[in-house]
Amino acid sequence: MGKPPSGRRGGKGPWRPDHASRPGHRPDRRGPRSELPGGVAVIYGWHPVTEALRNGSRTVRRFLATENSARRLEGELGALDPAPEIVRPDEITRLLGPDAVHQGLYIEADPLASPELDTLSDDALVLVLDQITDPHNVGAIVRTAAAFGVEAIVTTARHSPAATGVLAKSASGGLEHVPFLVVGNLGNALLTLGERGFLRIGLDSEGEADLDAVAVRRPVALVLGAEGKGLRQRSRETCDVVARLDMPGAIKSLNVSNAAAVVLYAVTRKLKAS
């Protein structure tokens, strides 16, 4: 959430993204295969693949499964359409890399259709991601967004991970329920949202307002800043208010995906009560 503070109040100390020191962080800079030429998405793992197959809007181009996983999936979904190609686990591992937890399921699919700013509903709750680049964090945000009924996630084509691979796995099926709305310029998109009547709330540890004291209404856009850098200046300037989460404990910082969960919980409670 914005620029995470240090362990002391005031948020002036150094901070490092959580993913840099996470146990099991992938040392292979190439990472797993996550996107094919033409924008075809790679989706693997039980929850992402199950939700993708349930989604009638998702066009599957290739479907690989181990015998055990295909049998389990048939028990969950019934007859599989398309039918998977039955393979050994190591055949999927060769496609993804040794660190990918694929659980015997792998698909290649067309990306989902993206909404436009002018097609968002008049009572929408949306998230705006300002150059959040780590796919684990973005995937976790997508999963939380699906749980809280977020209509769309606004992001940029550059400085953002693709909605595939590691992000899809971290989202645990959430990509099928919360579309990405990709824009060329985030500042201009925030201006357009403002013209449409959206209340734009930026989240930053040094925000001038306590989120608890902010009057929230729909439609609303919650703007989350990048790991380490926080909200960029133009993003701050195009928000109606920049708010902070006041933490009562000794540790004042949250990973951006955790902060997103707390903010969505707080805002949806406010919206329900209003």
UniProtKB/TrEMBL annotation:
<dbReference type="Pfam" id="PF00588">
    <property type="entry name" value="SpoU_methylase"/>
</dbReference>
<dbReference type="InterPro" id="IPR029028">
    <property type="entry name" value="Alpha/beta_knot_MTases"/>
</dbReference>
<dbReference type="GO" id="GO:0003723">
    <property type="term" value="F:RNA binding"/>
</dbReference>
<dbReference type="InterPro" id="IPR013123">
    <property type="entry name" value="SpoU_subst-bd"/>
</dbReference>
<keyword id="KW-0489">Methyltransferase</keyword>
<dbReference type="GO" id="GO:0032259">
    <property type="term" value="P:methylation"/>
</dbReference>
<dbReference type="InterPro" id="IPR001537">
    <property type="entry name" value="SpoU_MeTrfase"/>
</dbReference>
<dbReference type="InterPro" id="IPR029026">
    <property type="entry name" value="tRNA_m1G_MTases_N"/>
</dbReference>
<feature type="region of interest" description="Disordered">
    <location>
        <begin position="1"/>
        <end position="36"/>
    </location>
</feature>
<keyword id="KW-0808">Transferase</keyword>
<feature type="domain" description="RNA 2-O ribose methyltransferase substrate binding">
    <location>
        <begin position="42"/>
        <end position="115"/>
    </location>
</feature>
<protein>
    <submittedName>
        <fullName>RNA methyltransferase</fullName>
    </submittedName>
</protein>
<dbReference type="GO" id="GO:0006396">
    <property type="term" value="P:RNA processing"/>
</dbReference>
<dbReference type="GO" id="GO:0008173">
    <property type="term" value="F:RNA methyltransferase activity"/>
</dbReference>
<feature type="compositionally biased region" description="Basic and acidic residues">
    <location>
        <begin position="15"/>
        <end position="33"/>
    </location>
</feature>
<dbReference type="GO" id="GO:0005829">
    <property type="term" value="C:cytosol"/>
</dbReference>
<dbReference type="Pfam" id="PF08032">
    <property type="entry name" value="SpoU_sub_bind"/>
</dbReference>
<dbReference type="InterPro" id="IPR029064">
    <property type="entry name" value="Ribosomal_eL30-like_sf"/>
</dbReference>
<dbReference type="InterPro" id="IPR004441">
    <property type="entry name" value="rRNA_MeTrfase_TrmH"/>
</dbReference>
